[in-house]
Design a protein that fits this description.
Layout (H helix, E strand, L loop, with lengths): L2 E3 L4 E2 L28 H8 L22 E2 L18 E2 L2 E2 L13 H8 L16 E2 L13 E5 L5 E4 L5 E4 L33 E3 L10 H10 L4 E5 L3 H5 L6 E4 L4 E6 L2 E8 L19 E5 L3 E4 L27 H8 L3 E7 L6 H4 L6 H10 L2 E7 L13 H12 L8 E2 L6 E4 L6
Parallel strand pairs: 9-10, 10-11, 11-12, 16-17, 17-18, 18-19
Antiparallel strand pairs: 1-20, 2-6, 3-13, 4-5, 7-8, 7-20, 8-9, 13-14, 14-15, 15-16
Helix pairs in contact: 7-8
């Protein structure tokens, strides 16, 4: 089974009726109807696991590394698709999405402006109590040292503890804003579950791309202060941002490149893998840095999807199912499943998808996310990229409802396979893959 952690302290969490989320082969009982409710309150009941049939254990971290980390110049050889050799994602020195599924280029700023200043952009209701946050307890031991434990810290930030003791922090963002500090708006709608200094140890910091909501200067400065021995892995074109800050333990990789990492005599492997997105930090640097997903192999296998789209769809009537139309989907995820899968755990975005005709080239909706989950051959998945900032116009917890709908549509269990958890909650996943 998968064990889920609820810490003792809960911030802004309303009193909820008893319900449960099963993280095993069977679906646990719910006191409410199993059908997807449109009310925010019913969605929250599915986010919070309070049934005594589920085992709970606080997060733990093993002692800090006692020997220097060694990063190989090259990794043990792994397979890659034949198309990767030609590097179709690099054209005239610029990075592109090389698939028809990405449509024409990146999300256009003019499209966003047009949508925001017309009636097409919906007003999103926000309440501080809408997305409850639990405080991680990083002091108690993991229940089974052979498990992988993943703690969601909001948006795309996950803290992952591998069975070897390797500790990985993905796309850290624990500040209040997901835009430049001088820019108005875009404040968190729920408080950070902890501070960077609350995390006991970090070996690797893994960045998916250059956007402000995934590469946060405030958080990186704090990581540098509290974890000076951490090593950073980034896609091509981003290393210079770190070196200008005086951070030199940085490895920059292209898609399908990987490195072996040795800590205390234990070797792990990290792979930089494709995603369908973009990598700019302003309106003038499109294509100057790469975007990516990542995998970690360390007596268990984790896939981090980063920020990604799956299939670009045209503008359609609001009530039309875009999956009723044949549109190409991104082939990279099936290739990742074939050449790096299967995975014990995948961390997959489910939010920031509306208006669909604008955002689909760069962001998954929940049905895209479930298809991606199946493509990469993951045993379990946890959701991310929702409930932390208002980036697009879908209601805050709509992605959770639609994730359930997508799982039902695919004939998959609504809980225990691909789950949306609370910010600050930790989940333990047993290792099933052989690596």
């Amino acid at each position: 089974m998968i064990r889920t952690t609820l810490a003792a302290g809960v911030r802004h969490a309303p009193s909820l009726p008893q319900s449960s989320i099963s993280f095993g082969g069977s679906v646990a009982r719910h006191s409410s109807s199993s059908s997807s409710s449109s009310s925010v309150f019913s969605v929250l009941k599915s986010l919070v696991s309070l049934n005594s049939s589920i085992s709970y254990s606080p997060c733990s971290v093993k002692n800090s590394t006692s020997s220097p980390m060694i990063v190989s110049e090259v990794a043990s050889p792994s397979t890659a698709p034949e198309t990767a050799k030609a590097k179709p994602h690099i054209i005239n020195g610029c990075f592109v999405n090389p698939w028809p599924s990405a449509g024409e280029g990146n999300v256009k700023f003019t499209e966003l402006l047009w949508s925001r200043f017309t009636r097409e952009w919906r007003k999103v209701d926000v309440s501080p109590k809408m997305m409850p946050t639990v405080t991680p307890d990083f002091s108690a031991p993991i229940s089974d040292p052979s498990n992988i434990r993943a703690t969601w810290l909001g948006h795309a930030t996950y803290y992952v503890e591998m069975p070897t003791g390797l500790r990985v922090l993905f796309d850290p963002l624990l500040g209040n804003k997901c835009v430049p500090r001088w820019a108005p708006g875009f404040n968190r709608i729920s408080p950070p579950p902890c501070k960077i200094s609350d995390i006991p140890a970090v070996d690797l910091v893994v960045i998916s791309h250059y956007h402000y909501d995934h590469l946060d200067e405030y958080s990186i400065d704090l990581i540098r202060k509290h974890f000076p021995e951490a090593h950073y892995f980034v896609p091509l074109g981003i290393k210079g941002w770190f070196t200008k800050k005086g951070i030199h333990d940085v490895t920059e990789l292209d898609w399908w490149e990987e490195r072996d990492i040795s800590v205390n005599g234990v070797t792990s492997t990290i792979s930089c893998l494709p995603s369908q997105h973009g990598g700019n930090r302003s309106i003038s640097d499109h294509g100057m840095s790469l975007w990516s997903s990542w995998s970690i192999t360390s007596k268990g296998k984790v896939y981090f999807a980063g920020d990604t789209g799956y299939r670009h769809v045209p503008k359609l009537p609001a009530d039309q199912d875009d999956y009723a139309i044949e549109m190409p989907h991104c082939p990279a995820f099936e290739e990742i499943g074939e050449h790096r899968g299967p995975f014990d755990l995948a961390l997959i975005p489910i939010g920031a998808y509306s208006p669909r005709w604008i955002m689909s080239k760069a962001h998954c909706n929940p049905l895209d996310s479930v298809n991606l989950f199946q493509d990469v051959m993951a045993k379990r998945a946890l959701a991310m990229h929702f409930g932390t900032w208002i980036l697009t116009d879908e209601p805050v917890l709509e992605p959770v409802e639609k994730l359930r709908e997508a799982l039902r549509r695919k004939g998959l269990p609504e809980t225990g396979l691909f789950d949306a958890i609370q910010i600050g909650q930790a989940v333990e996943v047993p290792v099933e893959t052989v690596n």
